[in-house]
Design goal:
This protein is mainly alpha-helical and about 60 residues long. It has three helices and no strands.
Length: about 60
């Protein structure tokens, strides 16, 4: 579990930092996946493939 120190009463900044740390290490994504429950291996594969296609298209748009 990540920890963030609140400095000078700046809770909003600490919360933003905590969210960034969670996004980098993937903990929020893991939590979301666990809440969805069990997914069959084939369904998981299809979901990952669709997500990878979406991300590659997003990256190709950004490269221009």
């Amino acid at each position: 579990m990540a920890t963030v120190v609140v400095r000078n009463g700046n809770v909003d900044g600490a919360l933003r930092t905590l969210k960034q740390i969670g996004a980098k290490d993937g903990s929020s994504r893991k939590l979301r996946d666990r809440q969805e429950g069990y997914m069959k291996p084939g369904a998981k594969r299809r979901k990952e493939k669709a997500e990878n296609i979406k991300n590659s298209r997003k990256r190709s748009r950004r490269d221009y």
